[in-house]
Each structure stands twice: as C-alpha cells, then as structure tokens.
Backbone:
C-alpha cells in the first residue's frame, strides 16, 4: 500500500536510517510503540511530546525534526472570525497614507484607562474570557485615542498606558490561540516600550512573545530571544527592584522551557538554576503587570521544574513533587500561591502522570477539579484533550458519566 510522504515522516526516517536503526530499535530507544513510529513515517502527525522522545533518542534538538511542508487543509473558522471582528478592528485597523485617526472621539482620563486594564486582568485571571473579549476592543480604542491626543506633559504616560493595554491583548489572544493578532499586539507593545525607553515594559512584551513562540513550537527562536534579552537586562540581585528581578527570572523560565522542549537539557538546567536564583531573590510570589508578565516567585519556578519531568516522561517524579516542598500547602502559605493558570497547568501534568501509570480515575479527578475552577481555560488546553484521549484509550471498564461529560466539554470523541 502506498503512503503519503510528509516532511516529518521523511525526517524521522532519514535520521533512523543514518543510524542504521530499524523501526523497532527507534521505538525502543524513544520509549514509544512501533506503531507510533510506523504511523509517523507513513505520513501521520504526532504530538510535540512524541517528537521530543524521538529527538532525545537521536540526541538532536527537537526542532531538527521540523521541516517545511504544506499546511493541512482546514475549514474557514467563520465563527471565530465573526466573534473577533471588533477586536481585530481595534488592534489591526486599516492603514492609509496618513496617520490621523478618523473621528477619534473624546479621550478618557488615563487613570480610568489604567483601572480598566486592571479590571480586565482580574477577569482574565478569573477565567472570564468572554468578558475580556467584550472589553478589549473599546479598551484598545481608548488607549489609542489617549496616546494620540495627549498633551505634551501626559504623552509619555499615555503611550505607556497604550503599551500595557497591548500587553493585555497579547496575553489574552495567545491564551485563546489567536496567534496572528497576539503577535501584532505583543510586537507593538515591545516597540512602544523601546521608543519610550521603558525597558521593563518592552521586556515584558518579549516574555509574552517567547510564550507565543513556544506555543508555535518555534523553540530555537524562543530560546535565542529570551537568552539575548536576559543577557541585556541581567540585574544585580542585591540592588535591583523586585519587578526587574522578576522579569529577568521570567526570561530564564522561557529559556528553560524552550531548551527542554528542544532536547537541550544542559541549557535548560542552567536556565532553571538562574530562575531559581531570581525566585530566591524575589522571595515571595510577586505580580505587577507594569513590570512583568505574570506572577513569579519560588512556587512558579518549582512548577516549571516539575513540568520538565512531565516532558521527560518521568511520571513518578511528577507525582513525587506535585504536592511536596514548595508545592505543599504549608510552603505556599508562606511564599504565596502561583497564578491560577500556572497552577492548573501543573495539575494537568499531574493528571498526565496518573494516566501514564494507569490511574485513569485519579487523572479524571484532576480534570474535574480544574474544570470546577477554570472551565473556560480548560477548553483551550491541548494537554487537557491529550489526557482525556489517553483516558478514553486506556480505560478498561465502561466510561462513567463524568468521563463522557468531560470528553464532550473538551470536544474529544470516544
């Protein structure tokens, strides 16, 4: 039977033949089934986690398995296009040969716009994405009008407010995987920060852009951008303001996340060490949207280290550290809790570890707990769908009603 040749399948096959390995040998070295290897080489797709296992067996960066190829055919997503029309208009307006706004309307006071940004961030952190989506178009418009019409003495502050509104838009749009719009918002915020000589604002945009690049599996670019920026802003830990140390620590986390996904363990380990040093200097979980991307501190740094264990397939290691040490209740009472997003992402790693060890009900319990607090967020997480798919595939007994409802919620078909 003839099979479709793909760039991915060709790359996996070429590396295997160069080493003189059979498909069975590659499967053994990568800790995968022969069926998975055969499917990939015959033109099938694969999760990035699967490619990471293959790259680790080959001892190459994961990105070397990515090769140019035509995108898979997809249907036009008319629903999303309609829902995001106003936001797209606010963020990406038509551009002509003049720079003037057409009838900008009255400008809102800057403190009111600041308050609106803070309110929208609270909604975002509370998993109320619909509310954020409704507020962003008018918020971006208000920030743009303020920046264009501000008097000389308020021009810098107005431009900074606009940059922070763009950062909020970039954060929301990356979370809901609208990457073209997210890129526009983040790049505009970085450029605004550079023009204003507001280094921390520009750096916060870089942290967000690295997150977007990671979401797109652009590991080399994410690591290089984060490392270059971290080197430029590296603080003197004994004297630098907390916000400066926190954003540098966030860059170190991005370096590590990119490196570990790209099968560069030494670079990842060194970046994790630097992030831990920054977290120790910060002391507590710290959040300030004006100086860094999200909550940062000792607990967040530990969560990301456990995420590395999950990516490496060390399920027992994940469970051993999932509720211990800095991730235990006692420690978090002292140093503070991480952001809800980071904590719930960690619980998905725990669920994945339970599935890997055959405990489908424990994995299901984790998904239910996450859904109870962040139902909307959960629907945007590929990891949640992967865990649910694994539960459906490995479950020996009849599915419970809870499992069927969760599969429907995540749009996973049994």
Residues:
């Amino acid at each position: 039977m003839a099979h479709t040749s793909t760039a991915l399948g060709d790359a996996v096959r070429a590396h295997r033949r160069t080493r003189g390995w059979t498909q069975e040998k590659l499967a053994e070295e990568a800790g995968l089934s022969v069926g998975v290897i055969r499917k990939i080489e015959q033109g099938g797709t694969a999760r990035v986690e699967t490619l990471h296992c293959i790259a680790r067996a080959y001892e190459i960066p994961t990105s070397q398995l990515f090769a140019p190829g035509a995108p898979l055919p997809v249907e036009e997503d008319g629903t999303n296009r309609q829902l995001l029309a106003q936001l797209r208009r606010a963020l990406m307006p038509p551009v002509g040969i003049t720079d003037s706004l057409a009838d900008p309307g009255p400008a809102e006071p800057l403190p009111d716009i600041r308050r609106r940004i803070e309110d929208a961030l609270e909604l975002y952190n509370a998993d109320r994405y619909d509310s954020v989506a409704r507020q962003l178009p008018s918020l971006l418009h208000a920030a743009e009008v303020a920046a264009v019409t501000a008097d000389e003495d308020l021009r810098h502050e107005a431009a900074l407010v606009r940059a922070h509104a763009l950062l909020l838009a970039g954060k929301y749009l990356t979370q809901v995987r609208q990457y073209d719009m997210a890129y526009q918002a983040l790049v505009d915020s970085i450029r605004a920060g550079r023009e204003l000589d507001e280094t921390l604002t520009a750096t916060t945009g870089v942290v967000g852009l690295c997150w977007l690049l990671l979401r797109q599996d652009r590991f080399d670019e994410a690591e290089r951008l984060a490392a270059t920026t971290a080197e430029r802003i590296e603080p003197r830990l004994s004297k630098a303001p907390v916000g400066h140390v926190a954003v540098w620590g966030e860059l170190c986390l991005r370096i590590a996340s990119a490196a570990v996904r790209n099968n560069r363990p030494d670079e990842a380990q060194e970046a994790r060490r630097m992030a831990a040093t920054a977290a120790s200097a910060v002391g507590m979980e710290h959040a300030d949207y004006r100086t860094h991307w999200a909550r940062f501190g000792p607990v967040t740094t530990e969560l990301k280290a456990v995420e590395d264990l999950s990516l490496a397939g060390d399920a027992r290691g994940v469970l051993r550290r999932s509720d211990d040490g800095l991730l235990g209740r006692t420690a978090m009472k002292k140093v503070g809790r991480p952001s809800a997003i980071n904590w719930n992402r960690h619980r998905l790693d725990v669920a994945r570890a339970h599935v890997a060890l055959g405990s489908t009900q424990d994995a299901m319990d984790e998904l239910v707990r996450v859904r109870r607090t962040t139902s909307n967020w959960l629907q945007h997480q590929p990891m949640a769908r992967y865990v649910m798919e694994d539960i459906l595939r490995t479950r020996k007994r009849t599915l419970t009603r809870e499992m069927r409802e969760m599969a429907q919620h995540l749009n996973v078909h049994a």
Notes: The mean pLDDT is 89. The two ends are 28 Å apart (CA to CA). Residues 375 and 400 are 19 Å apart (CA to CA). The chain has 21 helices and no strands.
